[in-house]
Amino acid sequence: MRRLWLLFAQTITVLLAVYFVVATLKPQWLHQRPVPGAGVAVLEAPAADATAPPAGSMRAAARKAAAAVVSINTSKAPPNRAASNDPWFRFFFGDRGTEPQAGLGSGVIVSASGYILTNNHVIEGADEIEVILNDSRRARAKVIGTDPDTDLALLKIELERLPVIVLGNSDTLAVGDQVLAIGNPFGVGQTVTGGIVSALGRNQLGINTFENFIQTDAAINPGNSGGALVDVQGNLLGINTAIYSRSGGNMGIGFAIPVSTARQVMEGLVRDGQVTRGWIGVEPAELSPELAETFGVRTREGVIITGVLQGGPAAQAGLRPGDVIVQVAGKSAASVSGLLSSVAALPPGKPAAFTIQRKDEKLELQVTPGRRPAPRVAR
Question: 111 in helix, strand or coil?
Answer without folding.
Answer: coil
